[in-house]
Design goal:
The complex is a heterodimer of chains A (about 525) and B (about 350). Helix content of chain A is about 80%, strand content about 0%. Chain A has 21 helices and no strands. Chain A has helices at about 20-25, 30-40, 55-60, 60-65, 70-90, 95-120, 125-190, 200-225, 230, 240-260, 260-285, 285-300, 305-320, 320-350, 355-370, 370-385, 385-410, 415-425, 430-460, 470-480, 485-515. In chain A, helix 16 (about 370-385) crosses helix 17. Chain A is flat, with a radius of gyration of 38 Å. Chain B has two domains: about 1-110 and about 185-270, P-loop containing nucleotide triphosphate hydrolases (Rossmann fold, 3-Layer(aba) Sandwich); about 280-345, CBS-domain, CATH 3.10.580. Chain B has helices at about 20-30, 35-40, 70-75, 100-110, 125-130, 130-135, 140-155, 170-185, 200-215, 230-235, 250-255, 260-270, 280, 285-295, 310-315, 340-345; strands at about 5-15, 45-55, 60-65, 85-90, 95, 110-115, 190, 220-225, 235-240, 245-250, 285, 300-305, 325, 330-335. In chain B, the strands form three sheets. Chain B has a six-stranded mixed sheet with strand order 6-7-8-3-9-10, with helices on both faces. The chains are: A mainly alpha (about 525), B alpha/beta (about 350). The interface of A and B includes residues 420, 422, 423 and 435 of A.
């Protein structure tokens, strides 16, 4: 390749001439900025002493007109602080409270002296003496208040002076940083022409409007003795709030009355499953359950987890948590089972249908972010208290992860594998069962694990609506500030969580190896 | 002759985009071009007015650069992609008129497909991968094992049936892909750049293996490639695609000696002609030669007019005489002089 540049030492290369593009960027005063930008670019640290008079004088207005909105906010906040200080110093009634008090005390003193005189006229020496004593007290208080008021006024002068000094400093700062910030904006603009450039009057005016509004309202708030209420309180009364909450109550009542059969049906179904699981865990003699759990842990996650499981189960038994923890596990098991049974088909559906997922996503977000206490309320309204509502509450929290991770897993199945299956004549169902679900299994199992953990965290909270279990012990301990009991029950919950997590993850790793 | 056509596409168009049908109408009525379709309808032309047929037992190569629409085209044959307009015939059936279940039946029994990135099922053993088409058809396990063993034998992968695909090298994986396509003994093989992802040495080995298999099995094959060398090595006929259109269809020799336009000429420029051009293409009729030069040809070596240039070069280095060519009956019909031979190697006639 031919070049038209003579090869020379890199150190001898002259600076690039950027004045033309800088002029295009700045619109006005291109020469000045080309020179200043050149100086900024020459400094090795990226900072140099360059002073922009326009920025120093007009601060935020210069920044908006030049399109530097970040700098605009910094400048206006700094100036706001300065203005409030100067305002307070010059016409803020700093001593006004104490002056008013002193005046009032003076009035009281006059009245007390009147009473002293009238007592002397009536010849009541004793009364006069006691009144005079009180009057002296008032006088002293009034003098003290006056002194304080004076001191506050003297303080005002100090604040005023400090404000003036700060003003100078802020202006110098504004002048110094302007060109450096503007040069960075110019560098960004070189690659992205959408970056704001030129001198824009309308932006400057917009900045002026914002600044004057903010300055004036803030000054009113800080310098006036009693600022107008409209700027301190949002001007609204709470009737709207009451009306709407009453309206929600009304619809809740109607819904719970008219759909009682539905809620009852859901409740009963959950009850039946729960009763089955509970009989299995609580009804079976504890040695049998214990041995089965330990062997299961050993088979799925190896000897170390099995030993830990044995220790954890002993803890539960020794501290008398056996029954309660089995009840908790039954709640948890039912909730997770229902989550998985509902969540996996939904996840498959959402993986297939972009539109359905777009609708479901905000709902899933809501389910996960709404504080649990908030959805306990409608659940109580519709389902009352007890274990089935507790399970429903856990499901609200536990469903999103399994749905999300199932959808994610199925979406991430390689497209070419699915296409190959289709090319060999597979039906949608064959593709789902033979390819998509097996390949999405790691993701689905991660979802199952998360769902179980989510359900567990809520099973504890569900004790609030009478779902019993270990959570109830923690709740009682909380109410009576019984530290020891609370901690022991808390550790029991922790052990349940760790054992379940380890066993499920052990199985999950197993399938990974096999897959 | 008509019965011998296995795959036939007639004026097939594929336009991608939400307004594909409107764009198609505009193309038909107003005859607008590719850029206008994109500007006015936001639609992309995948393949444009493609017609060709593939005869029984033939390896039909479609050659084009990436984005020329060749992978889109091959997916029309089994309707993995639906054409916007046009007809597709496979084994005498109108593919566009098949019901979903009949289409699945055709895909499962008539067509075997091999993919560029193998597309093996990562969670299944090699055996289960090869047997997958049979499994879809609901064949018994005994038969599946039996057939997959046979197919793995064809590609020389016995002993690997209980491994997982990820334990195999790229070349071996693609042989599994080929075995899978062959497992259900299809009438048609669709091969979508099967060897492109492999390194050159393995690619050559697999090409040889495929050619040997093909001679043995006589499968009608639609072979997609971006490599003209590969197309020339394997293809009975070659179609060259550019921007969704077929610019030339012909035998390798026709393409190399008679490129349809500059685009094709650019491609064939660096192709070695030694095995592509035959004596009958470059020979001068013996009567003309004798009349012009009047040389005595009695000492000249005799070769068949159907030998390629490679063979002619071998003969030419042993003698100073021009070479005389003969037809099947042994009659002398042409002469290849040194000048003609050298021009032929350069690609001229």
């Amino acid at each position: 390749m031919e070049t038209n540049v003579e090869i020379q030492s890199v150190d001898e290369l002259p600076n690039l001439d950027i004045s033309e593009s800088v002029t295009e960027f700045t619109g006005t005063s291109g020469k000045y900025y080309a020179h200043e930008f050149g100086r900024v670019q020459e400094s090795s640290s990226g900072y140099c002493w360059t002073f922009n008079l326009g920025s120093a004088l007009f601060g935020p207005l210069w920044a908006t007109a030049r399109g530097l909105w970040g700098l605009f906010w910094v400048f206006s906040v700094l100036e706001l602080i300065v203005i409030v200080m100067i305002g307070l110093g010059s016409w803020g009634d700093l001593g006004s409270d104490q002056f008013a008090r002193a005046e009032k005390l003076a009035g009281n003193y006059e009245r007390m002296m009147d009473r002293v005189e009238s007592a002397i006229e009536q010849g009541d020496e004793e009364g006069a003496a006691s009144f005079r004593k009180r009057a002296d007290g008032l006088l002293k208080a009034q003098e003290k208040a006056l002194a304080q008021a004076k001191e506050a006024e003297a303080g005002a002068t100090r604040i005023f002076v400090a404000g003036l000094i700060l003003l100078v400093l802020v202006k110098v700062f504004e002048g110094l940083v302007a060109n450096i910030a503007y040069e960075r904006q110019y560098t960004r603009w070189r690659t992205d022409k959408k970056v704001r450039s030129g001198f824009n009057w309308s932006n400057g005016i917009l900045g002026a409007v914002i600044v004057s509004f903010v300055y004036v309202v803030t000054l009113m708030r800080f310098t006036s003795g009693n600022p107008p209420e409209i700027i301190t309180e949002f001007p609204i009364d709470n009737t709207i709030y009451l009306q709407i909450s009453a309206w929600i109550d009304y619809w809740f009542d109607i819904a719970s009355r008219n759909f009682a059969f539905l809620f009852l049906g859901i409740s009963r179904t959950i009850r039946i499953i729960l009763d089955g699981v509970e009989t299995l865990l609580v009804g079976t003699p504890w040695p049998v359950v214990m041995v089965v759990i330990i062997i299961f842990a050993y088979r799925s996650a190896g000897p170390r987890v099995a030993i830990f499981t044995a220790a954890a189960l002993c803890y539960l038994a020794v501290f008398g948590f056996w029954q309660k923890s089995m009840a908790t596990v039954a709640l948890l098991g039912t909730a997770s089972f229902l989550c998985i049974a509902i969540g996996i088909p939904l996840g498959v559906w959402f993986a297939r249908s972009q539109r359905a997922y777009a609708f479901a996503r905000p709902v899933l977000d809501l389910m996960q972010t709404l504080p649990s206490f908030v959805y306990l309320i409608p659940i109580i309204a519709f389902f009352g208290t007890g274990k089935p509502p507790g399970i429903l509450a856990s499901m609200i929290f536990g469903l999103p992860p399994i749905i999300r991770l199932t959808a994610l897993g199925i979406r991430e199945v390689p497209k070419d594998v699915v296409e190959a299956a289709r090319a060999f004549g597979a039906t949608d169902m064959q593709i789902l069962r033979g390819i998509e679900v097996p390949l999405a299994t790691p993701s689905i199992m991660a979802g199952v694990n998360q769902t179980i953990m989510m359900c567990l965290s809520l099973v504890v909270i569900a004790a609030l609506i009478d779902a019993k279990g270990l959570g109830y012990d923690v709740l009682v301990a909380l109410q009576y500030a019984a530290k020891g009991q609370g901690i022991l029950a808390g550790i029991a919950i922790l052990f349940c969580a760790i054992v379940i997590d380890r066993v499920v993850q052990g199985r999950f790793k197993d399938t990974e190896k096999g897959g | 002759m008509k019965d011998d056509v296995v795959i036939e596409l007639k004026n097939a168009w594929k336009i991608f985009g939400t307004k594909a049908d409107e764009a198609m109408q505009a193309i038909e009525t107003a005859g607008i071009g590719k850029t206008e379709v994109l500007e006015q309808y936001g639609a992309v032309v995948g393949i444009a007015d493609v017609s060709f047929n593939v005869r029984r037992g033939e390896i039909f190569c479609i050659m084009g650069l990436s984005g020329s629409g060749k992978s889109t085209l091959v997916r029309h044959v089994n309707r993995l992609i639906e054409p916007t307009s046009g007809e597709i015939w496979l084994l005498g059936q109108d593919v566009m008129k098949l019901s979903p279940s009949a289409l699945r039946e055709v895909r499962a029994k008539r067509i075997g497909m091999v993919f560029q990135h193998m597309a093996l099922l990562p969670h299944r053993s090699v055996r289960d991968n090869v047997a997958y088409p049979l499994e879809i058809r609901g064949e018994s396990k005994a038969r599946r094992w039996n057939v997959s063993q046979h197919a793995l034998g064809l590609v020389g992968l016995e002993g690997f049936e209980d491994r997982f695909p990820r334990e195999l090298s790229g070349g071996m994986q693609q042989r599994v892909g080929l075995a899978r396509a062959l497992a259900c003994d299809p009438d048609v093989l669709l091969m979508d750049e099967p060897f492109s992802a492999l390194d050159p040495l393995i690619r050559r080995q697999l090409q040889d293996q495929f050619m040997a298999l093909s001679e043995q099995l006589h499968k009608t094959t639609l072979f997609i490639t971006h490599d003209l060398d590969e197309a020339i090595r394997l293809g009975t006929r070659i179609a060259i695609m550019k921007d969704g259109r077929i610019v030339q269809i012909g035998t390798p020799e026709e393409i190399v000696t008679n490129p349809a336009d500059d685009y094709v000429r650019d491609f064939v420029q660096n192709i070695s002609k030694l095995k592509l051009i035959y004596a009958h293409t470059i020979q001068v009729p013996i009567g003309d030669y004798v009349a012009a030069a009047g040389e005595d040809l009695s000492l000249s070596p005799r070769v068949s007019q159907d030998v390629d240039l490679d063979h002619l070069v071998d003969v030419a280095v042993t003698t100073n005489q021009p070479i005389v060519t003969t037809d099947e009956a042994g009659t002398e019909i042409g002469v290849v002089s040194k000048d003609r031979l050298l021009q032929g190697i350069k690609g001229g006639k």
